[in-house]
């Protein structure tokens, strides 16, 4: 533990897609977030906000904050079932402080499942600033959706795959 942070071992990197707003690596407007599963059964998204994502000068737009929280909590289901996606039923966000857009400062977003039923689950997540301060918290409810139940869905056209990188962390602190 360094400076109040705790370090967690990365157990797996999650896939990215081509055009998803949150994880799409070919989406020129996208966040291009990378998602990692941790030993503590949480998912962490890491992304670098850019000035195009701002609301007032230098601060992340609340809608972008909501999108990354929603995606990260939603991806917590992949910890338990790689063959299921989910869609959001409800998302509640508490913005605790403005989220600055700082060049070369990555944001970390956590997500976990807090309650699970047969077809639904609930989860929570946080946006954590570089100094460890929680800037936003969310609670969401999600419907589980097996991939084979999504109409006209072809996983190969989505480009859903893990893209390994030499810069992938083996541990993440927050």
Count the beta strands: 8
Helix-strand pattern, N to C? EEEHEEEEHE
CA distance, first residue to last residue: 9 Å
Number of helices: 2
Poorly predicted sequence stretches spanning 5 or more consecutive residues: none
Write down the CATH topology. Answer: Thiol Ester Dehydrase, Chain A
The chain-level mean pLDDT equals 94
% residues in beta strands: 35-45%
Assign the CATH superfamily.
Answer: Hotdog Thioesterase
Strand order of the largest sheet: 4-7-6-5-3-2-1-8
What is the SS-derived class? Answer: mainly beta
Which descriptor suits the 3D outline? globular
CATH level-1 class: Alpha Beta
Kindly give the count of domains: 1
Question: What share of the residues lie within helices?
Answer: 10-25%
Radius of gyration: 16 Å
Summary keywords:
174 residues; 37% strand; 8 strands; globular; Thiol Ester Dehydrase, Chain A; single chain; 2 helices; mainly beta
Descriptive account of the structure:
Helices cover about 10% and strands about 35% of the residues. The chain has about 170 residues and is mainly β. The protein has an 8-stranded antiparallel sheet, with helices on one face. A hairpin with a 3-residue loop joins strand 5 (about 105-115) and strand 6. The longest helix is centred in the middle third of the chain and has 14 residues, at about 60-75.
Structural topology:
Layout: E1 7-13, E2 34-38, E3 43-47, H1 62-75, E4 84-95, E5 107-116, E6 120-128, E7 134-146, H2 155-158, E8 171-173
């Amino acid at each position: 533990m360094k400076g109040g942070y705790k370090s967690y071992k990365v157990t797996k990197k999650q896939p990215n897609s081509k055009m998803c707003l949150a994880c799409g690596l070919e989406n020129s407007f996208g966040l291009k977030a990378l998602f990692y599963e941790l030993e503590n059964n949480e998912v962490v998204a890491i992304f670098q906000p850019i000035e195009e994502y701002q609301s007032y000068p230098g601060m992340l737009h609340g809608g972008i904050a909501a999108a990354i929280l929603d995606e990260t909590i939603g991806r917590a289901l992949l910890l338990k079932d790689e063959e299921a996606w989910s869609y959001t039923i409800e998302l509640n966000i508490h913005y605790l402080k403005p989220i600055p857009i700082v060049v070369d400062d990555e944001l970390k977003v956590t997500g976990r499942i807090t309650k699970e039923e047969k077809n639904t689950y609930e989860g929570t997540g946080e946006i954590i600033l570089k100094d460890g301060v929680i800037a936003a918290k969310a609670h969401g409810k999600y419907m589980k959706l097996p991939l084979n139940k999504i109409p006209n869905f072809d996983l190969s056209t989505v480009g859903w795959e893990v893209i390994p990188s030499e810069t992938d962390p083996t541990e993440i602190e927050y």
